[in-house]
Amino acid sequence: MDLLKMGQDLLGDKVGDMGGIMDALSGLTDGNGLDLAGITDKLKEGGLGEQLSSWLGDGDNAPVSADQLTNALGADKIGEMASKLGVDAGAAAETLSQAMPSLLDKFSSGGNLLESVTGGADPMDLVKGLFGK
Description:
Elements: H1 3-15, H2 21-25, H3 36-45, H4 49-56, H5 66-73, H6 75-85, H7 89-106, E1 108-109, E2 112-113, H8 123-131
Antiparallel strand pairs: 1-2
């Protein structure tokens, strides 16, 4: 079984589809599939390191604006996501600004993004991390 697909399915079950955002998120990086590590890298490079740290950490999630995400991820990537969602770029960025903190919060543990999906850890650790067991 493809571990990336398994991770996407489990994550989608945990946080909900968020209006199709899970599929649309796969286009935010240049890789194939949902690349959360690639997304976090773009967010850091785009000046959102402080917000990102709050989302990955165990405390409250800092807010982020649609404009901040558009600047960090690129208007072209937001446009592609919008096309997949069937909405305009502004609506896609706004949806993403509401979903991204929760998404990364739920897919992290103790301040670190769970790398199980792409990086060789036991798949059961992914399941345990996603379901808090």
